[in-house]
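User: Could you go from structure to sequence for me? I need the amino acid at each position, not a summary. Structure tokens:
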């Protein structure tokens, strides 16, 4: 087992964790809630479960080890914490912080007209720039920026998750591999050219527009595709409609980030995220307050996201319990009431989630 230096989880064993319902799913993994019952109140984690049989080829194995290495090294309050890794005969496990303040996408969908207000958007992007800058200083490109990879704690601290596509890259290094969400791809990546840090600035511009305008600047529909205006064509044209971004300074920032030429992006922001932080849109931002979690997006309802998360887990636990009861009833169908009761007592039921869980 590999672990971080956090003493409370350094010596965790898989047998100490009660694994609950799934809360997420990827191409080769699932994410479950895991409860450490030996603590009071019970400590909960997000458990990323990777099936060994789905690890196909050296490239996928290398990516998995790279993700583990980067999570262990990139110690930052706004990057999800890896407590330890575990394994058994079937699976590999990443024990991670459980974040219950909602995904950015959850908050975007509940904003008026699905448009995040300028003040909240500025705080959110500012909070995002801090871990991205930290990664850049460590020579790491994130490569999978999107609303579902940005989560919040109950108190509102922004946290980047899922470093599965992250990789080390020098300032002038270029890659030809294409990964991440298609409508965040930069023109140079779509063309198949070598792309590096400037492509990450482009992705940030896409995110800003999607947050504030309520829709992505590049998006393929059946109608647009029938007109020959598919996603690739839109990105290569690089003429996003920014008129729905309500803040003038935010529009100006997005326009420079969504410049078609990567060289122009690099000239405008030669130090990457550090220079983006100096843009006039952020002049009123208290970076110290953002960094220590005191300044959070003011229109986001983290308590509501937390409550919905608990409701989902409680209903999932109830469904699991009733499934177990039905299975016990089926096993005891040929017996009597006593046999049914004994079968129930033998069950390892999913424990109910209670409201006294630790706040992060």
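Assistant: Here is the amino acid at each position, in order:
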């Amino acid at each position: 087992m590999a672990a971080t230096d956090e003493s409370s989880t350094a010596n965790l064993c898989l047998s100490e964790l009660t694994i609950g319902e799934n809360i997420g799913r990827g191409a080769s993994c699932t994410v479950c809630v895991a409860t450490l019952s030996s603590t009071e109140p019970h400590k909960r984690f997000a458990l990323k479960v990777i099936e060994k049989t789905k690890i196909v080829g050296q490239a996928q194995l290398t990516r998995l080890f790279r993700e583990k290495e980067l999570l262990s090294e990139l110690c930052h309050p706004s990057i999800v914490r890896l407590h330890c890794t575990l394994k058994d005969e079937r699976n590999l496990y990443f024990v991670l912080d459980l974040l219950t303040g909602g995904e950015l996408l959850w908050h975007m969908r509940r904003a008026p007209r699905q448009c995040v207000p300028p003040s909240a958007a500025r705080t959110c992007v500012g909070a995002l720039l801090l871990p991205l800058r930290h990664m850049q200083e460590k020579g790491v490109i994130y490569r999978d920026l999107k609303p579902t990879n940005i989560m919040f704690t109950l108190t509102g601290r922004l946290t980047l998750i899922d470093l599965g596509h992250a990789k080390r890259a020098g300032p002038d290094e270029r890659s030809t591999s294409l990964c991440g969400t298609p409508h965040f791809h930069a023109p140079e990546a779509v063309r198949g050219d070598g792309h590096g840090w400037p492509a990450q600035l482009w992705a940030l511009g896409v995110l800003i527009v999607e947050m504030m305008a309520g829709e992505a600047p590049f998006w393929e529909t059946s109608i647009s595709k029938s007109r020959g205006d598919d996603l690739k064509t839109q990105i290569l044209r690089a003429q996003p409609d920014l008129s729905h971004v309500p803040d003038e300074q935010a529009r100006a920032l997005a326009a420079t980030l969504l410049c078609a030429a990567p060289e122009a992006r690099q000239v405008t922001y030669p130090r990457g995220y550090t220079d983006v932080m100096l843009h006039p849109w952020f002049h009123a931002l208290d970076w110290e307050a953002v960094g220590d979690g005191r300044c959070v997006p003011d229109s986001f309802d983290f308590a509501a996201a937390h409550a919905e998360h608990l409701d989902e887990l409680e209903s999932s636990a109830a469904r699991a319990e009733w499934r177990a009861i039905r299975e016990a009833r089926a096993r005891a169908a040929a017996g009597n009431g006593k046999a049914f009761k004994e079968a129930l007592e033998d069950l390892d039921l999913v424990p109910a989630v209670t409201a006294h869980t630790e706040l992060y």
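One structural detail worth keeping in mind: The chain has two domains: 20-97, 104-302.
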